[in-house]
Amino acid sequence: MTFAFIEPHATTWPVRLMCRVLGVSPSGDYGWRSRPESARSASNRQLLDDVQRIHAEHQRRYGSPRLHAALRAEGRTASRGRVERLMRRHGIRALAGRRFRPCTTDSRHDLPIASNLLKQLFSAALPNQVWLADITYLPTAEGWLYLAAVLDLASRKIVGWSMRDHMRTELTSAALMMATQRQRPPAGLICHSDRGSQYAAEAYRRQLADIHAIPSMSRAGCCYDNAPMESFFHTLKVELLHQRRWATRDEACRDLFAYIAGYYNRQRLHSALGYITPEQAERNAC
Q1: Which domain of life is it from (predicted)?
Q2: pLDDT per residue over 157-166, tens digit each?
Q3: How far apart are CA 91 and CA 71, in angstroms?
Q4: CATH 3.40.50.20 fits 130-285, yes or no
Q5: Terminal-residue alpha carbon distance, the chain
Q6: pTM beyond cutoff 0.90
Q7: Which of 216, 203, 143 is nearest to 172 (CA)?
Q8: What's residue 196's pLDDT?
Q9: Dist. CA 283–CA 278, nearest whole Å
Q10: Bridge-partner residues for 270, per DSSP?
Q11: In this predicted structure, what is the pLDDT of residue 7?
C-alpha cells in the first residue's frame, strides 16, 4: 500500500524523499514498480477509467449508485461496493448542495381549494394518470426567474414547463398547456399541486375542466404532500443552479431547457425508476 501511494505522487515529490518519510527503501519501490501488473490491478485501472469517464460525461452529477447502474448498462459486472471503494480512494464524489425550499405558495386567498386525493401515496400504474405541479424560482443578475413544472408520477418525466419573470397564473397555465399538448392525457387525470393562488385561479381550473382532469391539492404548508416534485426541484438546484451564475434570464432559460429536455428526461438515471431514464420508463409503459 505504501508503494502504491508513492507511484502516483512521483511527479509531485522526489521518490527518495517519500521513501525516507514512509520508512521504505528506494530499491523496494523500484522492485514493486518493476513487477508485472496483476490482473486485479489491470481490471481496477480499466474500471477507474470507466468510472471517471461516466462521472465526467454526467458533469459530476452521479454518485456510486448511478455510476454502478450506468456501468451495468454498459455490460460491466463490477459490484457496487467495488465502485464505491474506487471512488472513495480517488476522491470521486457527486455534487452536493444544501436543502432549502423557497416559498412560492400564496395560499392567503378565498379561491376554491381541492381535496388532497393523493395523501402522499405517490404511485401510478401508467403515465398520464397522475401529474404533479409546482413552482420554484432561480436567481439571475437580472432578477428572479420563475419555473413552473409538471411531472408525470409514473415515469417521473417533466412533461410540461414554463419560465417567466413573474409567477402569475399565466406561468402555471403555460406549463399545463405544454403538458396537455405533448401528452394528450385521457379523462380522469389527477393534477396535484399546492394551494397557491396560481393553481386555484379560475383560468387554471377551467383548463383542468377542459381536459376532464381532476384537481387535487396538498394540505396547507405541507411540502411532503408533493414530495416527488420537491425532489425534482432539489435535484435541479444541486445539479444545475449551484453550478451556474446567470447574467440574464435568457441564459438561465437556455440552461434549464437543456437540463430538463436534454438531460433529465433523456439521460439521467432515476433511482425511483430502478435506474432507468424517465423517457425509458414512459416507453416501457406503452
Answers
A1: Bacteria
A2: 999 999 999 9
A3: 18
A4: no
A5: 52
A6: no
A7: 203
A8: 92
A9: 9
A10: 276
A11: 64
Closest by CA position to 231, among listed 139, 97, 63: 97
Three-state SS at 124: coil
Q: Is 140 helix (H, G, I), strand (E, B) or coil?
A: strand
Q: Which residue has the cell 457527486?
A: 94
Task: State residue 256's pLDDT score.
Answer: 97
Which residues lie across from 138 on neighbouring strands?
145
The closest of 143, 210, 153 to 176, measured between CA atoms, is 210
Q: Give the per-residue pLDDT at 155.
A: 97
- Reduced to 3 states (helix: H, G, I; strand: E, B; else coil), residue 101 is coil
Listed in sequence order, the DSSP H helices in 58-168 are 64-73, 80-89
Q: How far apart are CA 209 and CA 185, in angstroms?
A: 13
Sign of CA dihedral 73, 79, 80, 86: negative
Polymer length in residues for the chain: 286
- The amino acid occupying position 127 is P
Residue 164 bridge partners (DSSP): 146
pLDDT score, position 144 = 96
Give the pLDDT confidence score for residue 65 in this predicted structure: 87
Residue 42 is predicted with a pLDDT of: 73
Longest dimension (CA), the chain: 83
Domain ranges of the chain: 1-34, 39-90, 130-285
Output the pLDDT for position 100.
46
Amino acid at 15: V
DSSP 22-68: HT--HHHHHHHHHSPPPHHHHHHHHHHHHHHHHHHHTTT---HHHHH
Q: Which residue stretches of the chain have pLDDT < 70?
A: 1-11, 13, 15, 22, 24, 26, 28-38, 40, 97-109
Residues 6+ apart with CB under 8 A from 70: 54, 58, 62, 269
